[in-house]
Amino acid sequence: MSDIIHLLPDSIANQIAAGEVIQRPASVVKELVENAVDAGATRIQVNIKDAGRTLIQVTDDGKGMSETDARMAFERHATSKISTADDLFALHTMGFRGEALASIVAVSHVELRTRLKGAALGTRLLLAGSALEKIETDACAEGSSFSVKNLFFNVPARRKFLKANDTEFRNIINEFERIALVNSHISMYLYHNDTELFNLPASGLRQRITNVYGKSLNTKLLSLEAQSSMVTISGFIGTPDSARKRGALQYFFVNGRFMKHPYFHKAVMYAYDRLVPAGDTPNYFIYFTLDPASIDVNIHPVKTEIKFENEQPIWQILVAAIRESLAKSHAIPMIDFDTRDAIDIPVYNPAEERKPVHIPQVHVNTDYNPFTALYERAEFDWTKIYKDFDEDRASLQTEAAQTQEQPHREMLFGESAGTCYQYKGRYIITAIKSGLALIDQHRAHIRILYDQYVSNIRQRQGASQQLLFPEMVTFTAAEAAMLPSLSDDLHYIGFDLNNLGNNTYSINGIPAGMENLNPPALLKDAVNHAIETGTKAHEEMAEAMALSLAKVAAIRPNKKLSGEEIDHMIASLFSSSSSTYTPDGKCILYILSDDELDKRFN
């Protein structure tokens, strides 16, 4: 039997490596921009065409490369960062494995124009699929300019599985922002299809954050500082009132490198405990500086997961630093003792020691009956309540009486429905022929609004309530990139928007029934929900956005409802597509049967 094991050709090996390192156009942007940072650039410009499918160009004014270095840069495992194994534990730069450029050129057409600082001429290389096609002298600017064209041209399967352009471009924006946030000393620019999206001059860190995410964020940032022999922590955290359920800006950086760290995220949430509403998360931009030998950045192909040697002590330092920052800003309330009804302790006076002591007298009203007072103050007519539960009453005089769902409602409630009552501002209780129905009013309203919004989108009609004074909303670049695919659905739901430029929109109208809500927060929440769900099909995206809006617009717990409002809610609920569960599968209705009630009293 002949031998079957052989070495892979370099071109195929590079394509396999590209599968780990170059997952999408955003991966190319990340690697090329990080290389520009390592080259000492003070200005980096990124040009994108068709979300990176057609062109990714990164130009910098760094130190450039000689002709020999330019040729060697595309060889696999060619690096200027590592000479010995010990160098792996003393890294302060981004790329170091020597896989990025080899992986990029394995799946694209690449043009490199580079010139060393002080050199008279530079070098131009053309490569495709790992093969060097041309090399020549070039009169280019100092620094380097990489142009990556036709990504995955020779791997059709990889190109086929790329997401829609807006999704791929949001990923590019995310990578660009991460690098920009940790290199505020570098001027950075991003263009997409010849439109400028980011113009970030060199600045301080706080200014860089507001340049990326909008000036309105500036007043919502608190400085964070902590220093120990183990780690230095700096950056900014958001005020508790800026926390939100979706789209929170949350970034960890270690030694100038973006990282994901669920353990440290829990530390942040622990520090904000009871300061933000349940389900909300705060903004944070936290930078760790520590000895490179105490971390391992080599545990993940894209180097976003980092292992710390001293995670638990750093966790404690981080929590303490955040709480100190919150306390200094008075975000943590000071203890304020309530002196009302407190015992009055007199000041000690030795001259009064010889005064006679009188035994306190207790006066008791023997005719007092606490139950009498209780019945006098009772808010309910208990006789009426028992009568309502024992006797059938006329069916609710609501619009549901004429709907096609009326047979369904009569099957559940019988030919005469019981009177409804609200319990603790959260549940609606009503008698039915088989027992008691308990309804979560918040979830019921979500179902009602969701069906209404989906219907408006499908029928391409929705009532819009015009605002007397338009409100402004500023999106992040990633959020703004999502808006074009949502604009029609937003319009059909009832949003009237006007693009003012620079990712800022005026809200001229909102869906009817949302007059008492916060339109900018409502709109941003809907956009971020669409981003998080990653829905692609129009129908799925419309349903995701409808659910997001319904959750925000639905009445909150502890909202007292009038009898008419309760009747209308129940009628609308049982006219909906599903009265039992919310669109995301949470229970709306629970029936406590007569048999179960009987067992409770036996």
**pLDDT below 50 for ≥5 consecutive residues: which ranges?**
334-339, 373-415
Query: What is the CATH level 1 assignment of the largest domain?
Result: Alpha Beta
Average predicted local confidence, pLDDT: 80
The shape is: globular
Largest sheet: 8 strands, mixed
| DSSP strand content | 15-25%
Q: Strand arrangement, largest sheet? A: 5-4-3-6-2-1-7-8
CATH fold-level topology of the largest domain: formyl-coa transferase, domain 3
Task: Explain what you see.
With about 600 residues, the chain is of the alpha+beta class. The chain folds into 3 domains: about 190 residues, 2-Layer Sandwich (Heat Shock Protein 90), CATH 3.30.565.10; about 110 residues, Ribosomal Protein S5, domain 2; about 220 residues, MutL, C-terminal domain, dimerisation subdomain (formyl-coa transferase, domain 3), CATH 3.30.1540.20. The strands form 5 sheets. An 8-stranded mixed β-sheet has the order 5-4-3-6-2-1-7-8. A 5-stranded mixed β-sheet has the order 9-10-13-11-12. A hairpin with a 2-residue loop joins strand 11 and strand 12. Helix 2 packs parallel to helix 6.
